[in-house]
Amino acid sequence: MLENLSTEKRNHKTSNLDEMTTKQILTAMNEEDHSVPTAVRNEIENIESLVLKVIESFKKGGRLIYIGAGTSGRLGILDAVECPPTFGTDTEMVQGLIAGGLKAFTVAVEGAEDREDFAVNDLKEISLDDKDIVIGIAASGRTPYVIGGLKYAKEVGASTGSVACNKNSEISKFAEVSIEVVPGPEILTGSTRLKAGTSQKLVLNMISTASMIGIGKVYKNLMVDMQSTNIKLIERSKRIIMEATDVDYETASKYYEQANKNVKAAIVMILVQCNYDDALDKLNEADGFVRKTLTV
C-alpha cells in the first residue's frame, strides 16, 4: 500500500510548507537534501556488487539497459545518453527504456507504467539476450513496468539489478542485486523527483562511471575515450593528452592528429614511444587499459 512507502509519507518538518517564505522553503529543501548522500553511502556494498555485474556483461559484449517509468525512466535515459560522448561508447552499449516510449521523456504517458507487458515488448524490440544486464529503476519500488522488465530479463538469462527508494521494495524480489536508497519523506509529499530522484541520479552516476573505469575507459582520472565532437571537446582532448603525458600543447596537438584524433592512442604513442598502429596493438593486448600498455 502507498501509505506504507517512505517516499509517500508526509514530512513533519514541512507540514506548513505553504506558509513558508521562499527562503524558508529553499532552506528546508537544502537541509533535506543533506540526507541523500548518507542514504547512498549506506548502499555502497550493493552498488559495488551491481557494478561488478555490469562490468561482467560489458566484457562479454553485453549491454547495460536501464528501465523505468516517469522520473526514474528519464534518469536512466539521461545517464545512458551521456556515455557515448564521455566514454566513447557505441550508442547501443548503454540504453534507457521508459514506459510509454521516448515521447514519455517530455510528456507523461498515462497508464504506461502499469503494464508489465509494455516492458517485455520494449526489451524484445532491442533483442535483449543473456549477455546483457537490465537495471530496473523505481522510486516506489513497485512499478509494474519495471517488474515486467526484470521478469523478462530473468527469462532470457540476462543479469538483473534494481534501484528503489524504499526498503523491502517489490522490484528487489526480481533482481539479483537490489539497491534500496531511502532518503526519507519528500518536503512535498510524494514528489519523488526531489530527494528520491537525486539519490537515483547519484547511484546511476556511480554505476556507469565505475563500470566504464572497470573496462579501461579511464587513465588516471582522465576521460581518455571521450569523443571530440566539437571545438571545446577537441581542446579538452588535447589537454587530456597533456595531463596524461606531461607534454606541451604543441606536442599534444601533433600526436592528437597523428593518432587520427584518438586520445587514448595518442597517449600510448607518447608514453611508450611507438607509432599509431603499434599503439592500437598494445591497447588491444591490454584490453583497452592505457596503464597496462606500459608493461605489455
Structural class by sheet pairing and helices: alpha/beta
Task: Give the N-to-C terminal Cα separation.
Answer: 58 Å
Placed side by side, the strands forming the largest sheet appear as 2-1-3-4-5
What fold name goes in the CATH topology slot of the largest domain?
Rossmann fold
List the total number of helices: 12
Q: How many separate structural domains? A: 2
CATH classification class of the largest domain:
Alpha Beta
CATH superfamily of the largest domain: Glucose-6-phosphate isomerase like protein, domain 1
Low-confidence stretches: none
Globally, the shape reads globular
- Cα-based radius of gyration, to the nearest Å: 22 Å
Largest sheet: 5 strands, parallel
**Overall CATH architecture of the largest domain:** 3-Layer(aba) Sandwich
Name the helicity range. 40-55%
Beta strand count: 5
Order of helices and strands: HHHEHEHEHEEHHHHHH
Strand content: 5-15%
pLDDT averaged residue by residue: 95
Fill in the keyword field for this structure.
Helicase, Ruva Protein, domain 3, carbon-oxygen lyase activity, 9% strand, Rossmann fold, 296 residues, SIS_dom_sf, five-stranded parallel β-sheet, 2 domains, globular
Plain-language structure description:
The protein has 2 domains: 2-214, Glucose-6-phosphate isomerase like protein, domain 1 (Rossmann fold, 3-Layer(aba) Sandwich); 231-293, Helicase, Ruva Protein, domain 3 (Orthogonal Bundle), CATH 1.10.8.1080. The model has no long low-confidence stretch (mean pLDDT 95). The N and C termini lie far apart (58 Å). It has helices spanning 22-33, 35-41, 44-59, 70-87, 116-125, 144-156, 195-214, 231-245, 249-258, 263-272, 276-285, 290-293; strands at 64-68, 94-98, 133-138, 159-164, 177-180. It contains 12 helices and 5 strands. 46% of the residues are buried. The chain is 49% helix and 9% strand. β3 (133-138), α6 (144-156) and β4 (159-164) form a beta-alpha-beta unit. It is an alpha/beta fold and 296 residues long. α3 packs across α7 and α4 (70-87) packs parallel to α7 (195-214). The longest helix has 20 residues, at 195-214. A 5-stranded parallel beta sheet has the order 2-1-3-4-5, sandwiched between helices. Homodimer. InterPro entries: Etherase_MurQ, Glucokinase_regulatory_CS, MURQ/GCKR, SIS_dom, SIS_dom_sf. Keywords: Carbohydrate metabolism, Lyase. The active site is at 82 (proton donor), 113. Its EC number is 4.2.1.126.
